[in-house]
Amino acid sequence: MDFDSSLKYAVIGASKDTSKYGFKILKHLFDLGINVVPVNPSADFILDLPVVKSVDSLGSDRVLVFLVPPSVSFKIVKHAINLGFKKFWFQPGSFDDSLLVFCSEKGVDFSAGVCLLHLG
């Protein structure tokens, strides 16, 4: 899957900590003017954006961007596919081979290992 700035994104693992990639990726997308939503179960606002607690609160038309460990990504992806999500972006460190095989078998679009900070 190629980066498309016209799509809507959600950052799984968004963070208030400016030193973490969960903040840097969210800010980069926000600064590009992309429709982006932070997802974090323990925050209310990041970059003055309202935070959603889980993918259950999102429309399935969003690209889910993962900045969490592979086991967490796998759990969320399984649930998200059941909700109708079809596009996933796995940041470096957020996936393993079994997750990529699963996504391929499910026929969803994904990118793995390409950092969004280098795009746009």
Could you please describe the fold and organization of this structure?
The chain is of the alpha/beta class. The protein has a single domain, classed as NAD(P)-binding Rossmann-like Domain (Rossmann fold, 3-Layer(aba) Sandwich), CATH 3.40.50.720. The protein is built from 3 helices and 7 strands. A 5-stranded parallel sheet has the order 2-1-5-6-7, with helices on both faces. Strands 3-4 form a two-stranded antiparallel sheet. The model has no long low-confidence stretch (mean pLDDT 96).
Rounded radius of gyration (Å): 13 Å
> What do we call the CATH homologous superfamily?
NAD(P)-binding Rossmann-like Domain
H/E element sequence? EHEEEEHEHE
Number of strands: 7
Instruction: Report helical residue fraction.
Output: 25-40%
- What global shape is seen? globular
Secondary-structure map with pairings?
Blueprint: E1 9-12, H1 21-31, E2 36-39, E3 45-46, E4 49-50, E5 63-66, H2 70-83, E6 87-90, H3 97-106, E7 109-112
Parallel strand pairs: 1-2, 1-5, 5-6, 6-7
Antiparallel strand pairs: 3-4
Short summary:
The chain contains 3 helices and 7 strands. Helix content is 29%, strand content 20%.
Identify the notable features of this structure and list them briefly.
Rossmann fold, alpha/beta, 3 helices, two-stranded antiparallel sheet
